[in-house]
Specification:
The protein is an all-alpha fold. It is 68% helix and 0% strand. It contains 27 helices and no strands. Helix 5 runs antiparallel to helix 6. The chain is globular and about 70 Å long. The two termini are 22 Å apart.
Length: 474
């Protein structure tokens, strides 16, 4: 039987997940840095901030390096926060009724997976987004455990709103996941919309404060990618496969952005980078007036629907296809720190940690093992199976946390421009942490009854009127 001390004990045991991540940090100090990472650090160094990479995330670099002016401080904060949110999910699943060993084991498993260690110490917005994503998952699991009682404590919806605001702020497409989750909450708790409204107000207040006064204070150039840019590969795919469908006006619009041979020759369904970063591709033309190209993108999407669906599968297949195709490459943390003028170079704190983790890193790079070590498809299908079985067993309360993963899976599948593990990182970590919920598919005790019992048991320590509470629940 559940006891409050179990969740506390599980939380502290799960925080030990930081140890394997810390070994990676010691061995690969200051972490893995890509061109994007160097660009954001350069903005911090110069004080000239842009919003191509979400400025809110770049400003977290500034904040952390006020305490320790080294990129290693950022990667250290990342692994500590990741371990804490893993422990928080562990605590919530134990409160639901999952046995402590299963809940703690999931957190330890995440930290030991060979793809997690190197990604967790990479200075990417996707890592910060993953930390926020797992925090949201923990709050939704608390909601599943407490049901409508979750909204009674006003700090809970405020905390959920804060977690969701980080999803919005740390990735430009995060807003789509946030809106989807808020829609699910509004429908699932339509008879208790006050708590949902507090969550929404908290969310919007934080986003408005950061994107308003904070970005103004740091003189951030607010220019950012526009929605129309996501449609560039869609239009290129249609022009590559069915050029005869384009009118003269449409061809002229394409030519105003890049020569027509660029649209044909630089197109690759697996990776949008050759097209987007072609020197002759003038994306500023789209940003200056996105409406015409946005309309063209929508027209080509539905006019050449078979081609559009083929492109969608091609660029999202890394989420669902376990095997690594010979014709594509799965982007992972870069082995070398990108050249920079900031004096950043790899400097292991502990050479033994580097030697040990290097052997792991090298072994996982084998193409024959990528399906297990790096590609997220196995975890994707296990997660889908988990929530499918929970739905079959009528564990409806757990489908709200599952909706977070489902909504973001659709978001990533439709918006990914390349095969990159970092896009799937939040789904990968959250998916593994949800595997212990299979306990309720194997032992399908009606969740609302068991949850109410746990809630009442916890309240009995501070609220003598337990009988009245149970009466209202009935």
């Amino acid at each position: 039987m559940y006891h409050p001390s179990d969740s506390r004990r599980g939380f502290w045991l799960a925080t030990l997940a930081v140890l394997p991540l810390f070994v990676w940090w010691l061995g690969w100090f200051p972490g893995f840095l890509s061109l994007d990472s160097v660009d954001q650090l350069t903005q911090v160094e110069t004080g000239e901030y842009e919003n191509d990479h979400p400025a809110a995330h770049t400003l977290t670099f500034w904040l952390i390096t006020r305490l320790w002016d080294d990129p290693g401080a950022i990667s250290l904060v990342q692994i500590v926060l990741l371990a804490l949110v893993l422990a928080l999910v562990c605590k919530r699943t134990i409160e639901l009724g999952v046995p402590l060993p299963l809940a703690v084991g999931a957190a330890w498993l995440v930290s030991l997976l060979p793809a997690v260690g190197p990604t967790a110490i990479t200075l990417w917005k996707d890592v910060a987004f993953t930390i926020a994503f797992v925090w949201v998952l923990a709050e939704l699991l608390a909601l599943a455990a407490q049901h409508t009682d979750y909204w009674a404590n006003r700090s809970n919806p405020l905390r959920l709103g804060a977690a969701l605001s980080l999803l919005w702020l740390f990735r430009h497409n995060g807003i789509l996941t946030v809106l989807g989750v808020m829609a699910v909450l509004a429908w699932a708790y339509r008879h208790d919309l006050k708590g949902v409204a507090i969550t929404m107000v908290s969310l919007l207040a934080i986003v408005a404060f950061v994107q308003g006064p904070v970005l103004w204070l740091f003189s951030v150039d607010r220019g950012q990618p526009v929605a129309a840019e996501v449609l560039i590969p869609v239009v290129a795919s249609s022009f590559f496969h069915e050029p005869g469908n384009f009118s003269q006006d449409e061809r002229e619009l394409l030519a105003s952005i890049a020569p027509l041979d660029v649209w044909r020759d630089s197109y690759d369904c697996d990776s949008a980078n050759p097209l987007l970063f072609d020197p002759q591709m003038n994306i500023d033309t789209i940003r200056a007036d996105p409406a015409p190209f946005f309309r063209l993108g929508l027209r080509t999407t539905f006019r050449d629907l078979d081609t559009s669906l083929g492109l969608l599968w091609c660029r999202s297949s890394f989420l669902f296809q376990p095997g690594q195709p010979t014709s594509t490459y799965l982007e992972r943390p870069p082995f070398q720190i990108h050249e920079n003028d900031l004096g950043i170079a790899r400097d292991p704190v502990w050479s033994a940690a580097y030697d040990f983790t290097f052997d792991i890193f090298a072994a996982t790079e084998s193409r024959s093992w990528l399906w297990l070590t790096w590609r997220p498809a196995v975890v994707t299908w296990l997660t889908i199976a988990t929530f499918g079985l929970l739905a079959w067993r009528r564990q409806w309360g757990l489908l709200v946390p599952g909706s977070l993963i489902g909504i973001h899976l659709v978001n990533v599948a439709t918006s990914s421009l390349n095969h990159e593990f970092r896009f799937a990182f939040p789904l990968y970590v959250a998916g593994v942490m949800c595997l212990p919920l299979l306990w309720f598919a194997v032992f399908p005790e009606p969740l609302p009854r068991s949850v109410n019992r746990f809630v009442s048991h916890r309240r009995s320590f501070s609220n003598p009127d337990v009988t009245a509470i149970r009466g209202r629940e009935r």
